[in-house]
TrEMBL record:
This is Ubiquinone/menaquinone biosynthesis C-methyltransferase UbiE. Methyltransferase required for the conversion of demethylmenaquinol (DMKH2) to menaquinol (MKH2) and the conversion of 2-polyprenyl-6-methoxy-1,4-benzoquinol (DDMQH2) to 2-polyprenyl-3-methyl-6-methoxy-1,4-benzoquinol (DMQH2). Residues 28-46 have a biased composition (Low complexity). Pathway: Cofactor biosynthesis; ubiquinone biosynthesis; Quinol/quinone metabolism; menaquinone biosynthesis; menaquinol from 1,4-dihydroxy-2-naphthoate: step 2/2. Belongs to the class I-like SAM-binding methyltransferase superfamily. MenG/UbiE family. Residues 1-66 are annotated as: Disordered. It comes from Acinetobacter defluvii. The gene is ubiE. Coiled coil: none annotated. Its EC number is 2.1.1.163, 2.1.1.201. It is an enzyme of class 2 (transferase).
Length: 314
């Protein structure tokens, strides 16, 4: 199941009782709407197709590192680097309300086992501070909330308000009182101080980030010395016959399911394309090392359809 494995070495109170300010925030978010005062998810989402006329979403700003050129990829399309975040936002605003059911259908429920494997690799402990980046509907954050207990703290962050709304509603309904919900861009993680978290996770979100090197540098910055990063992401199948079957499924079945269930085939066409454009296992491992992470390794799951990458800040 795995390869290239190495063993690791070595408040503010709000003026309103109903709003809790994250202890990790150093200043108010310059963009976005306070999480307790947003429109309902139903009001936000429309039936407008991704390719149609859509509003310009107010997104937390990204990095400006020069790592990415004037153009980049959006699936198989070439787009302006400045426009990619907006296009990704269109996708996830469109699919947010059906995101969980589509995950179950697309993976035949196996995504739950992938996430459980990642959680088991996390080494999360009572009292720790965890940041779940691009955490969407909160699958991992919900488990981490229980594992860190009342003395620990979890932050569920996402760049997309609709996805964050779904996660917030789910975790509040589940009684997760030790979780904050923060609109943040993975490229900068600007609201968070250096050396703030014991554990960082990003699950099926890194491939949507325009400047992945900037995101990895930001993750290294906010992680405490001794802390670990886990990246759960689609990757490259290791068996060629299996890879061909996977391609056939991805480019035929996924858009059809998206059309039937979410009334949106284009977003799931993008999903299939974005997976193919994501760095393979060895490349991503090298990118993590370039960002400063040590004792990096990765574990292939389901024949390499998904991989869990791990790195430490020592």
């Amino acid at each position: 199941m795995s390869n290239e494995n190495q063993k690791p070495t070595a408040q503010n109170e709000s003026a309103q009782d109903t709003d809790k300010v994250s202890p990790f925030l150093t200043e108010p978010l310059p963009q976005g709407t306070p999480q307790g005062q947003q429109q309902s998810l139903q009001q936000q989402l429309t039936d407008t197709p991704v390719s149609g006329s859509v509003p310009k979403y107010n997104l937390p700003r990204g990095a400006n590192t020069g790592n990415v050129g004037a153009t980049t990829h959006f699936g198989y399309q070439t787009v302006s680097s400045e426009d990619k975040a907006q296009k990704v936002a269109e996708v996830f605003h469109s699919v947010a309300s059906k995101y969980d059911i589509m995950n179950d259908l697309m993976s035949f429920g196996i995504h739950r086992l992938w996430k459980r494997f990642a959680i088991n690799m996390s080494g999360v402990r009572r009292g720790q501070r965890v940041l779940d980046i691009a955490g969407g509907t909160g699958d991992l954050a919900k488990v981490f909330s229980r594992e860190v207990g009342p003395t620990g703290h979890v932050v569920l962050s996402d760049i997309n308000e609709s996805m964050l709304n779904v996660g917030r509603d789910r975790l509040i309904d589940a009684g997760c009182t030790n979780v904050d919900f923060v609109l943040a861009n993975a490229e900068t993680l600007e609201p968070f101080e250096d050396n703030s978290f014991d554990l960082l996770t990003i699950s099926f979100g890194l491939r949507n980030v325009t400047d992945k090197d900037a995101a990895l540098a930001a993750m290294y910055r906010v992680l405490k010395p001794g802390g670990r990063l886990l990246i759960l992401e689609f990757s490259k199948p290791v068996f060629e016959p299996f890879s061909k079957l996977y391609d056939l499924y991805s480019f035929t079945a996924l858009p059809i399911m998206g059309k039937i269930v979410a009334n949106d085939s284009e977003s799931y066409k993008y999903l299939a394309e974005s997976i193919r454009m994501h760095p393979d296992q060895r490349t991503l491992k090298g990118m993590m090392e370039n960002a400063g992470f040590q004792n990096t390794d990765y574990h292939n799951l389901t024949g390499g359809i998904v991989a869990v990458h791990r790195g430490f800040k020592l």
